[in-house]
Amino acid sequence: MRAIACAGVLLFGGLGLAVNSSAAESCDRACQEGFVDQYLGALVASDPSKLPLAKNARYTENGQELKLGDGMWGPTVTLGTYKLYFADPQAGQVGFFGTIEEHGHPVILGLRLKVDGNIKISEMEVIALRKSAGVFSEPQNLVDKPSFHQALSPSERRPRAD
Q1: Cα 130 to chain center, whole Å?
Q2: Which of 72, 77, 148, 159 reaches 20 to 30 Å from 96, CA-CA?
Q3: pLDDT digits over 13-43, tens only?
Q4: Within-domain flag for 161
Q5: Cβ neighbourhood burial of 106 (10 Å; 0-12, 13-18, 19+)
Q6: 151 in a domain, yes or no?
Q7: Do 99 and 106 meet the contact criterion of CB atoms below 8 Å apart?
Q8: Is 138 helix (H, G, I), strand (E, B) or coil?
Q9: Tens digits of per-residue pLDDT, 68-97?
């Protein structure tokens, strides 16, 4: 669980740090989650050309910059049942934490997308926890919790700068 938490901090730690107001004005939470769904659909189809990409879009997988279409785009991928979205419309970024299978082997997938002001994906960052990650890659142990989907009360919220 510690490695999953660390992966989440690395992958999603940047959410909210850089603000792109033009993206915020044109792509709300539902729009951003739609980009994640488009990405996952393209991944399952092994066809990154299905993505609306910015001219110089970047792709990293497990900390390594790759050509989009390499890495996990090669194996047969199917979507799992666990899905958790993290949207930050103000920053133009959206994250996803869920499960997939590569050639029938379970994988925990962390994904961060940066959506630019032209409503194009400019950054794709993936962390894939495969069985080689040992006890920290057990997708069957991921359980959805209602608290993951509940908004904080106003008194629990902190200013964005914090």
Answers
A1: 16
A2: 159
A3: 544 444 444 444 589 999 999 999 999 999 9
A4: no
A5: middle
A6: no
A7: yes
A8: coil
A9: 999 999 999 999 999 999 999 999 999 999
